[in-house]
């Protein structure tokens, strides 16, 4: 069974980094009472990323929490100095923000704000990025990282984790 290592290649990104991102969304959904249908790797050509999930819509507050939860997980890992570049060197804050907000959060920010606010220069307004980051950082301290790791390791090994399996993994954490 593959495990989430202490150091995670965030730059490439590694399969482990991708699983942690999706697990963050699933964990937040479960914590706010939404039950994801699945989290999975995407193997088809032409997809927008290497992984995807299907979450219930929820109310606006639930949507915002689920949308910024992957960033919250990445923030926790960054603060613990667990995220590295492709060479295995721990990344600095500038690199983290570029990768987490500039790359990884593209679709998450659309869900968070309810619209695509990317400008002609392919960047989001700085105030929007700051608002998204603040929400994620506020959420970071309350996410059960043990559940995130368990969900991520299941995705890493099973490739697709369905609703019933997500609930089974989450049960000990959500009592």
Strand content: 5-15%
Uncertain regions: pLDDT < 50 for 5+ in a row?
A: none
**What's the total helix number?**
7
Question: SSE string, helix = H, strand = E?
Answer: EHEEHEHHHHEH
Q: Helical residue percent? A: 40-55%
Might you state the CATH topology name?
Answer: Methane Monooxygenase Hydroxylase, Chain G, domain 1
**Overall 3D shape:** globular
Q: Provide mean pLDDT, rounded.
A: 95
Strand order of the biggest β-sheet: 3-2-5
Given this structure, which CATH class is correct? Mainly Alpha
**Radius of gyration based on Cα positions:** 15 Å
Largest sheet, strands/sense/barrel: 3 strands, antiparallel
Distance between the termini: 26 Å
Question: What is the domain total for the residues?
Answer: 1
Number of strands: 5
| Structural class by sheet pairing and helices | mainly alpha
CATH level-two architecture: Up-down Bundle
Write up this protein.
The protein is mainly α. It is 54% helix and 9% strand. Strands 3-2-5 form a three-stranded antiparallel beta sheet. Helix 2 crosses helix 5. The longest helix is centred in the middle third of the chain and has 20 residues, at 60-79. It is globular, with a radius of gyration of 15 Å.
């Amino acid at each position: 069974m593959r495990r989430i290592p202490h150091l995670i290649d965030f730059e490439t990104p590694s399969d482990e980094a991708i699983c942690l991102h999706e697990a963050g969304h699933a964990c937040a959904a479960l914590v706010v009472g939404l039950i994801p249908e699945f989290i999975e790797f995407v193997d088809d050509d032409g997809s927008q990323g290497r992984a995807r999930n299907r979450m219930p819509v929820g109310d606006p507050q639930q949507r915002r929490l689920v949308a910024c939860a992957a960033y919250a997980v990445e923030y926790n890992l960054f603060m613990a100095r667990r995220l590295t570049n492709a060479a295995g060197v721990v990344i600095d804050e500038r690199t983290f923000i570029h990768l987490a907000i500039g790359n990884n959060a593209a679709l998450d920010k659309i869900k968070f704000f309810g619209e695509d606010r990317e400008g002609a220069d392919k960047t989001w307004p700085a105030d929007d990025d700051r608002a998204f980051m603040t929400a994620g950082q506020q959420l970071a301290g309350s996410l059960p990282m043990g559940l995130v790791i368990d969900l991520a390791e299941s995705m890493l090994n099973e490739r697709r984790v369905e609703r019933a399996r997500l609930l089974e993994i989450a049960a000990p954490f959500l009592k």
